[in-house]
Please model this.
Amino acid sequence: MPGVLCALFCAVLLAACGGGGGVPVLPSSGEVSSPAAPALPVPSLPPTTSTTPAPPATPQGCSVDEQRAWLRADMNERYFWYDQQGTPNNAATSLPGYFDSLLFKPTDNFSFAQNEQQFTQFFAEGRRVGYGYSLAFADAQRSLLQFAVIEPLSPMAQAGVQRGDSVLAIDGLTPAQIAAGGLPAVSTEGVARRFSLRQRNGLLRDITVVSANFALSPVLATATFALNATQGQTQVGYLAYQQFIAGSDAALKTALNKFYAGGVQELVLDLRYNGGGRVSTARDLASLIGGDALDGRTFASLNFNNKNQASNLVFRFVRNQQVAIPVSNFVRNPDGSFAFTSSGGAPDAPVASSSLRRLFVITSAATASASELVINGLRPFMSVVQIGATTNGKPYGFAPRANCGTVYNAVNFDSVNALGVGGYVNGLPATCNVPDDLGHLLGDAAEARTAAALAFITTGSCPAGAQTPLALQLRGLPLVPLGETVPPQMFSF
Model:
């Protein structure tokens, strides 16, 4: 089993169409100190519900001309780069294709359109339709294709497929043909697909898996490790998290409360396959990590274009017991915007306050958007040590609008932290560059990136060989859409 994985990964979630200067704040190796939090003022807390800029009214009909006119007007008003749009392609054969022609390329490689049913299913129900897997090449030559993530409640998991199993063929297509885009996406239930595999134990296996509607599992794995570090016995919590959706708040609180109640002194947050999601959920996770001392301080500021400055938002850290609305509804407003509204419910159980002074985050080129927001948002207040590879580089986000069955996720804002730092379009660089390791399951202490984080906690520096030329070479390889993919996401609600 090869020990390294090139950064060719696409996270498991929605089957959606479409889809930086970093600010180095940590040394590349060596001990990372824990700076005291800046003495920032703590203003009163404003509401953090979305105040999306108002677009043109939804057209009375859904003819192609009406939809294009609505889309042009909306982009001229709300698009972050409204004054640098592309030339409209009036020959486009679809509305998403027409939308793509309006984007500010190549800067905007993030905006995308998707089916409204898939969008609402994902955010309202925390579910998706498909098989529940993602793929990655385990070598620079792109000859060995392996499963990177298997959704725990998916058809693939029920069939016994594991991270690290190798793909010999899918529906008769070779890995090279799959990488070339020969395998069509499936977004309906009941579609059978044939997989020829080599399992982790070396055995060959042919299976048929049928697509289904299954619940997502944003928390993929948790573990606790006991280390003999330089400062004595240290308890370390490990949490693998892959999507910032509303339904994940309870699982996050349960995992972190267990860690804190068990005396965990260090936390390894694995975001290597996390492409983002809701800003409010990112704020909640950061609040659970940063603790009550950050209550009321700025987590992130979202800045809209100069036509919509009144819509700028400030998300502030909240006390741990205030994290997550007990019961909430995801609604589509008449103008096509989306929001979460509270429908009451019992108060959340309190979460033990964090006493962490630093955070270890495992990252990759697939770590994007709301994931990067957590890293950037915590850095003014605590040391954040990155293990793995430079992140995707997406400080931008969406206030999505739906029209005639299509949701348009156009970049509407950029984000900065409490110190006004943002603009990391080249990604957030890793402290220790360590290639991925598909030979081990997530949460295994022997997995290369997890082992590197534990070694740093034990010794105070990156492990030997963590920044070899090979690691740097693999880090720079581009993402390739394989398996069931989702574009990087950061939504203003």
In short: The radius of gyration is 22 Å. DSSP finds ten helices and 24 strands in the chain. The first strand starts at residue 112 and ends at 115. The first helix runs from residue 64 to 78.
